[in-house]
Amino acid sequence: MKTKQVLNNSLIAKEPVSADNFTVGVSVDCVIFGFEACKLKVLLIKSDMPSYKDRWSLLGDIVKPGEDIDEAVSRIVKNRTGLNDVYMEQVRTFGKVNRHPEGRVITIAYCSLINIRHNELKIYDNELHWHDVNEIKEMAFDHKEILDACYYWLQYRMQEHPLGLRLLGTEFSLRDLQLLYENILDEKMDRRNFRKKFFSMGLLIDTGILESNVPHRPGKLYRFDYEKYGSMKRKKWLGIDF
Amino acid sequence: MKTKQVLNNSLIAKEPVSADNFTVGVSVDCVIFGFEACKLKVLLIKSDMPSYKDRWSLLGDIVKPGEDIDEAVSRIVKNRTGLNDVYMEQVRTFGKVNRHPEGRVITIAYCSLINIRHNELKIYDNELHWHDVNEIKEMAFDHKEILDACYYWLQYRMQEHPLGLRLLGTEFSLRDLQLLYENILDEKMDRRNFRKKFFSMGLLIDTGILESNVPHRPGKLYRFDYEKYGSMKRKKWLGIDF
DNA sequence: ACAAAAGTGTTCAACGTACACCCATGC
DNA sequence: GCATGGGTGTACGTTGAACACTTTTGT
Fold first, then answer.
1. Could you report the per-residue pLDDT of B158-215, keeping only the tens digit for each?
2. Domain range for A92
3. Does residue B230 belong to any structural domain of this protein?
4. Does B224 have pLDDT greater than 50?
5. Residues of B at the A interface (Cβ-Cβ below 8 Å)?
6. Contact A110, A90 (CB under 8 A)
């Protein structure tokens, strides 16, 4: 008879180990980034694994037999945030033999970027919270390692591709954008050069609207031209999707 | 009773599908690149799956329960080429539901770079051959897609990191190096600028030896300073290992 | 009027690109 | 001596980095 074991807040079918039974579990783990109050945040849930009691873990689940990997990620993101069509990208697969205490589980890590204000978290339902990425020390499983890899990936990737915009609302000031870059990359940037660089891409649409409720001269609000970007990204920025 | 099915020239344990049995197979597939006669080559084997009779496939195998993913890759590379300590890097995981005709198999693709002259292929043993990457049309499973992803990955990656050198012997002329880059990236380069760029890295060691048996002025042979590179790569070239 | 951030241009250094001639060897 | 590729330097354009003042709004 088969036994069920809890895997990262979900269920994985496990079988007694035998020479004939090469079962290896496959899961996905989603590193969902957000940005708020000048901090990069990641969405985590309390682990309910006994061996990782009170540790935080990424949002993950097993991949179902009839489900594509991307579908599994979409399902998890949808379940936890209420959002469809979220930007996501595969980052790396982690599979150390002992990474999961209940058996051999290989996990495919994905990175997602969402706007914190646009979600509908069911925080009451699970112990689901946004955490400052820079203040996370320990996590369940090897999730700290996965988070670090995704953070590093994000830092690298957003220097060549305008990914970071997905963390902002549809309308944003150049100040918002620069603060985002400065905080995620952890370096001060020159305002004039930053503006020049972004404008030179020709992908910012001036909405004509100004900020309001700021105690100083209001800045213009822009939108990102995703349509134009979609048609040009393979030229200027190499559309690397590996 | 469990049944065994051939998976990509090896064995995977499969079980009758039931609600309790969420078995998903996990394999690795190795894209082993070589370079010879000014062509980028990839090492392929004849598929012995009935549904892919006579198609070529990548070198792959299931990941064993007690084996790390990297170990599985090393094992496969060692088995097929006789080489230890080969350069390899994880590229991407492929897991479409129907990518394997015998069941759900998720595969983690790795890219390896070896020197064709330094291997000990057991070509008699299996139908194992080097193929011109640019002449491959159809392959078994989704292996063409995997190969394309790895080829693209290689092209992109070798523009920022001196990866290509792994495809050459320990001693090489700048001409060899330039032909390698020109052929893999499919673009002509200026000889003077190419030399300048490589020398400016400070990673080429002049062996003092000259080419022989060339019908023209012989060029100098160089070695790559892997030691120096190992200690500096996180500075100049960002040691991205995602 | 003052504080606070928006908005704007120029200069310089580094880097990549284009390009042409002499040199060493094998035949 | 001729063919073949080895080896070298300079000029130009582009790009990224450094840097300061005026403008607009809220208080």
1. 998 999 999 999 999 999 999 999 999 999 999 999 999 999 999 999 999 999 989 9
2. 3-157
3. yes
4. yes
5. 2, 4, 12-13, 15, 17, 20-26, 62-69, 90-93, 95-97, 104, 106, 108, 149, 152-153, 156, 238, 240, 242
6. yes
Same domain for B196 and B135: no
Residue A20: pLDDT over 80: no
The chain-wide mean pLDDT, for chain B, equals 87
| Residue that finishes a domain, picked among B157, B180, B204 | B157
What chain B residue is nearest to A1 in terms of C-alpha separation? B20
Asked if the Cβ–Cβ distance from B68 to A152 is below 8 Å, we say: no
A92 touches strand C (CB under 7 A): no
For strand C, give the nucleotides within 7 A of a protein CB.
Answer: 3-10, 16-20, 23-27
DSSP string, B15-48: ---BTTB--BEEEEEEEEEEEETTEEEEEEEE--
Per-residue pLDDT of B192-208, as tens digits, reads 999 999 999 999 999 99
CB contact under 8 A, B153 and A20: no
Angle at B28 between CA B32 and CA B57, to 5 degrees: 55
Tokens of B79: 């088995």
Residue A4 has pLDDT above 70, yes or no: no
Per-residue pLDDT tens digits for A44-66: 999 878 888 889 999 999 999 99
Q: Indicate if CB(A216) is under 7 A from strand C.
A: yes
Query: Considering B102, B126, B157, which residue would you say is the last residue of a domain?
Result: B157
| A145/C25 CA-to-C1' distance in Å | 56
Give the CA-trace dihedral at B142, B147, B153, B159, to 10 degrees: -160
Q: Is the confidence at residue A100, as pLDDT, over 60?
A: yes
> Following DSSP, what letter does each residue of A168-206 receive, concatenated?
S-SSEEHHHHHHHHHHHHT----HHHHHHHHHHTT-EEE
In a shared domain, residues B118 and B213: no
B130 and B27 assigned to the same domain: yes
